Amino acid sequence: MNKKNIVVSDVSKEHDNPIAELVQVACQFDSNITLESDNRKINAKSIMGIMAFNPTEGMSIDIVTDGADEKEALSAIEKFLVCQ
């Protein structure tokens, strides 16, 4: 299991449809990917979960990955959310 805290950038400036694109990035990996903030935990592969979670600029999020490709998954989600 890997876990990292990040602060979300303005993803709407970098991506046309950030919610759908985030789910697409997450679905590329076999690992479980969870986003956590303020006692809320959602599956990053769930479009409804991401819509409800609504990651916005300045939000502090823990990315938690668990599985065979957890390091790669964490890196990809981090890059997406911090717009690297």
Automatic annotation (TrEMBL):
Q: Where in the cell is it found?
A: Cytoplasm
Residues annotated as signal peptide: none
The answer to whether keyword Membrane applies is no
GO CC terms for this protein? cytoplasm
Q: Which CDD domains match?
A: PTS-HPr_like
Keyword Cytoplasm tagged: yes
Give start and end of each HPr domain: 1-84
* Record keywords, A-Z: Cytoplasm, Phosphotransferase system
Return the InterPro entries for the record.
HPr (IPR050399), HPr-like (IPR000032), HPr-like_sf (IPR035895)
From the UniProt record, list the coiled-coil ranges: none
**What's an example GO BP annotation here?**
phosphoenolpyruvate-dependent sugar phosphotransferase system
Question: What domain of life does the native source organism fall in?
Answer: Bacteria
Mainly localized where?
cytoplasm
NCBIfam families the UniProt entry points to: PTS_HPr_family
| Classification via PANTHER family | PHOSPHOCARRIER PROTEIN HPR, PHOSPHOCARRIER PROTEIN NPR
Q: What is this protein called?
A: HPr family phosphocarrier protein
Query: What does UniProt list as this organism's lineage?
Result: Bacteria, Bacillati, Bacillota, Clostridia, Lachnospirales
